[in-house]
Amino acid sequence: MADLTVKEIFAKNVFRLRKESGLTQQQLGDHIGLAKTTICQWESAQKLPSAASINKIVAFFKVTNSLLFNEDNDKYISSDAAIDLPIVGKISRGNGSFTYENVKEYASTSEAWVRGGEYFYFRAEDDSMMYARILDGDLVLIRRQDDVENGDIGVVIMNDKLYLRRIYRDGNILSLHSENTQYPRISVIDDDVVYIVGKLKKIIIDA
Prior knowledge:
By secondary structure, the chain is of the alpha+beta class. The protein folds into 2 domains: about 5-75, 434 Repressor (Amino-terminal Domain), CATH 1.10.260; about 80-205, Ribbon (Umud Fragment, subunit A). It is about 25% helix and about 35% strand. The protein has 6 helices and 11 strands. The protein has helices at about 5-20, 25-30, 35-45, 50-60, 65-70, 75; strands spanning about 80-90, 90-95, 95-100, 105-110, 120-125, 140-145, 155-160, 160-170, 175, 185-190, 195-205. Strands 4-1-5-6-11-7-8-9-10 form a 9-stranded mixed beta sheet, with no helix packed on it. A two-stranded antiparallel ribbon has the order 2-3. A hairpin with a 2-residue loop joins strand 2 (about 90-95) and strand 3 (about 95-100). Helix 2 crosses helix 3 (about 35-45). The longest helix has 15 residues, at about 5-20. The protein is globular, with a radius of gyration of 19 Å.
């Protein structure tokens, strides 16, 4: 293990996994049920995880135990392996779950982009998010989740239509903001009217 301690090797590997998944320390902690301070302590090599926490990390990132503690594993974490993800044109909601519809094609995607969650693509259909550098026809990679932080860009369903917007919540009022002044802000009471489907993770320009 060269000159690195076990704590330092684990710190390097969990940091890389988190970054490749596009997560903050707070978001990773939320996903595996631990505090942000715990993730910070891991990544600064202050402490090692318990056996139960290791199991959570392995399950979330879909990696092996040995990978977390292997010093020479960059080539495994930054893999060129790819999977096909659906480009979704419509999503229906029923019985508390979402179903992808109007899937006419798939896009090959690096596995490093989609660790720790369910993902799909959505193709921007107008210029409502142009000042966020999302143009008509661009593919956006979306991570499936039922809520986002204020100011995050995500996909919502409203009146059976998908919208890509910057999302803000104030109590039970959900506000959808475009990144183009030609499109008005939409504010609705979040009561069987609008549903958050997922959060923007990556933009594929001119796809």
